[in-house]
Request: fold
Amino acid sequence: MNIALMAHDNKKDLMVQFCTAYAGILSKHTICATNITGKMVAEATGLPIHLFLARVHGGAEQIGARIAYNEIDMVLFFNDPRDEKSCESVSYISRLCDQNNIPFASNVATAEMLVLGLSRGDLDWRDIVNPKTKPFTALF
Reply:
């Protein structure tokens, strides 16, 4: 599965902790992330992560395009609801996920449910929707 990671500034450390805790599960999948979040997670976990631009420089739009083309199977976007100026990007990504039936988590509790479901095979239906005819990394 292709998993996208994003996090607002106040939630980046939480994303690192989450990915550290679930590195065993995440390591079996292809991960992409916005630049700063991805670098932090990669340094802490050793997971290979394809980096997009920082969210504020267009990374949300880059990931959004991959969602629109059904190239992403799950999005974990740790949102800081107190940061009103950043809520636009969460809404944008959330709407795209809803339009394309892509599992989306905006907080650690939902992310944990999705990742544990992923490890049980609960999201295998995405393989039917998004068959892997080409390696994910070739799309970048």
About this structure: The helical segments are 12-21, 23-26, 35-45, 59-68, 87-100, 108-120, 125-129. The first strand starts at residue 2 and ends at 7. The two ends are 16 Å apart (CA to CA). The mean pLDDT is 89.
